[in-house]
Amino acid sequence: MKSSITKSFSVIAFLGINLMVFGQTIDSKSKTILDDITRNYKSKKNSYFKFSYTTGASKDSQSQTGIFYSDNSRYKLKIMGTEQIFDGNKVYSISDEDKEITIAKPNENQVHFSPLSYLDSYKKDYNVNYSGKKTISGIPVDVIKMTPVKANGLKSVTLYVNTPQKKLIKLEQVSNNNDLAVITINNYKENQTLPASLFTFDKSKYQNYLITEL
């Protein structure tokens, strides 16, 4: 189960998208909402949230809980016993279960996992349409549907936005083969005092790990 979820999660965490846009459509309401959220996130010194990540149909869905820290240029992600650190230069993927670490430069087309991933990429990579309002866990949200301008492995991405708070609270991604992946974000914290070492990799802590640098 771990490998299948990790593989699916990597699609969301790292989107290999670098497309030329022809005939892109973005409605003005969606643009206003997404631009406001983007400015809100980027104005913060740092951000933290917990999230649930679910894949598969409801009857046989698989769900995991993760945590995410970011200071807009670096991040730390933890899910399913795997930790990933981006220190602004390299990505460190640490598996406690396998006692393995992979170190690599991020691919030039990769977009790091963050609420800002889609909020930034929508401007050139997606047709964007406002789809009305919905209530999630008692919270009224605006629903924005995004469809890729050119083939990227995805059929659609739907964002659920708490517009008054300028926060993304849920994301649904449907692949071309109709696989569904859902990220539900909660427990936001912003502008915390974080330790200087949070976004750094300390090799001395992993003496018994196999380390591969690509």
Jot down its keywords.
43% strand; single chain; 214 residues; 17% helix; disordered N terminus; alpha+beta
SSE topology sketch:
Blueprint: H1 2-13, H2 28-42, E1 47-55, E2 62-70, E3 75-79, E4 82-86, E5 91-95, E6 100-104, H3 116-125, E7 126-136, E8 139-148, E9 154-162, E10 167-175, E11 180-190, E12 210-213
Parallel strand pairs: 6-12
Antiparallel strand pairs: 1-2, 1-11, 2-3, 3-4, 4-5, 5-6, 7-8, 8-9, 9-10, 10-11
Description:
The chain is of the alpha+beta class and 214 residues long. Helices cover 17% and strands 43% of the residues. The protein contains 3 helices and 12 strands; from the N terminus they run H-H-E-E-E-E-E-E-H-E-E-E-E-E-E. The chain has helices spanning 2-13, 28-42, 116-125, and strands spanning 47-55, 62-70, 75-79, 82-86, 91-95, 100-104, 126-136, 139-148, 154-162, 167-175, 180-190, 210-213. A 12-stranded mixed sheet has the order 7-8-9-10-11-1-2-3-4-5-6-12. Mean pLDDT is 82; it is low at 1-22 and 108-112.
